[in-house]
């Protein structure tokens, strides 16, 4: 299977060099392709000649093993990208993955925190009296996340200093190495300024290029550590920690904006979604608002 391995490596190199995929995304592709490579070896197949029927057997096997539809859909997406690459490189003339159907899956609504829940988290973060440096950092993290809806990797990876020529905006380099401009609220700007005087407490050595430095290997606060800090804060705030994560706060940002009348397209741009269909998962908030308006203002609703 040496040739198959070479094709996989070339594909991953292309994703990194030409599309600028993040390390987490590359790792996911590598994991998916490693599993598919095992399937090929078991059948003595190779990427250059395998047909659609064999790929269907592979996808069926994932289902039989109990893989969720969402994970199987991600695996299929990796295969489709891989075989498109083989066609573009003239390694194959046909694409055996083109006719495969995606696994059917129900799209769950995101977990939500109320505006009151977010206020409670912020209140507790501001009053960690036993550790003023941690209090300032956690407040800044929460204020920025709730004000911008950043992905957690984008948040912990913010550079120092965070502002460009205009402190009202952050320039974010997100998925696919694409830049977007995200407005920053006054409370978030103030939280960053308050935290700046404590930032040196988290620096190993004299300087750091990160807004939220850490003494760990990455040099900045990790996604996992921030997630744990949030769950600890939720316990203090009297909120079920299972309901709280950085991603849930990103959901709260989007849902609360829409509930207060924000335009779906504007929210899409701020979240960094390439396709508005991804943002439309939040339209349940719009529907709830419409129903409330009808109940409150339509003359027949009184009956």
UniProtKB/TrEMBL annotation:
Any GO molecular function: DNA binding
Residues of the active site: 151, 175, 247, 250, 273, 282
Predominant subcellular localization, coarse grouping: cytoplasm
Gene Ontology CC terms, in alphabetical order: cytoplasm
CDD domains to which the protein is assigned, alphabetical: INT_XerDC_C
SUPFAM superfamilies: DNA breaking-rejoining enzymes
Keywords of the record: Cell cycle, Cell division, Chromosome partition, Cytoplasm, DNA integration, DNA recombination, DNA-binding
Record bears the keyword RNA-binding: no
Domain Core-binding (CB): residue ranges: 2-87
Compartments in which it is found: Cytoplasm
GO biological process: cell division; chromosome segregation; DNA transposition
Domain Tyr recombinase positions: 108-295
Pfam families: Phage_int_SAM_1, Phage_integrase
Superkingdom assignment: Bacteria
InterPro entries xref list: CB, DNA_brk_join_enz, Integrase-like_cat_sf, Integrase_catalytic, Integrase_recombinase_N, Integrase_SAM-like_N, Recomb_XerD, Tyrosine_recombinase_XerC/XerD
Family the UniProt entry places it in: Belongs to the 'phage' integrase family. XerD subfamily.
Subunit structure: Forms a cyclic heterotetrameric complex composed of two molecules of XerC and two molecules of XerD.
Role played: Site-specific tyrosine recombinase, which acts by catalyzing the cutting and rejoining of the recombining DNA molecules. The XerC-XerD complex is essential to convert dimers of the bacterial chromosome into monomers to permit their segregation at cell division. It also contributes to the segregational stability of plasmids.
Protein name: Tyrosine recombinase XerD
UniProt source species: Ferrovibrio terrae
Protein encoded by which gene: xerD
């Amino acid at each position: 299977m040496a040739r198959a391995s070479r094709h996989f490596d070339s594909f991953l190199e292309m994703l990194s060099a030409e599309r600028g995929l993040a390390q987490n995304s590359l790792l996911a592709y590598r994991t998916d392709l490693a599993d598919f490579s095992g399937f090929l070896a078991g059948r003595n197949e190779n990427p250059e000649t395998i047909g659609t029927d064999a790929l269907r057997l592979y996808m069926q096997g994932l289902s039989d093993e109990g893989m969720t539809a969402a994970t199987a859909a991600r695996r299929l997406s990796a295969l489709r990208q891989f075989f498109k690459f083989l066609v573009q490189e003239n390694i194959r003339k046909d694409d055996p993955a083109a006719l495969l159907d995606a696994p059917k899956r129900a799209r769950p609504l995101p977990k939500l925190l109320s505006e009151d829940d977010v206020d409670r988290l912020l209140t507790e973060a501001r009053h960690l009296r036993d550790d003023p440096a941690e209090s300032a950092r956690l407040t800044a993290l929460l204020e920025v996340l709730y004000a911008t809806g950043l992905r957690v990797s984008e948040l912990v990876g913010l550079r120092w200093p965070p502002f460009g020529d205009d402190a009202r905006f952050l320039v974010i380099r997100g998925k696919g190495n694409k830049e977007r401009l995200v407005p920053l609220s006054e409370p978030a700007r103030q939280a960053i300024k308050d935290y700046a005087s404590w930032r040196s407490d988290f620096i190993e050595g004299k300087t750091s290029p990160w807004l939220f430095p850490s003494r760990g290997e990455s040099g900045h606060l990790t996604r996992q550590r921030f997630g744990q800090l949030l769950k600890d804060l939720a316990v203090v705030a009297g909120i079920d920690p299972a309901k709280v994560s950085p991603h849930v706060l990103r959901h709260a940002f989007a849902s609360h904006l829409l509930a207060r009348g924000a335009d779906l397209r504007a929210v899409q741009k701020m979240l960094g979604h390439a396709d508005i269909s991804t943002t439309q998962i939040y339209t349940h908030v719009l529907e709830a608002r419409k129903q409330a308006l009808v109940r409150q203002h339509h003359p027949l609703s009184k009956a």
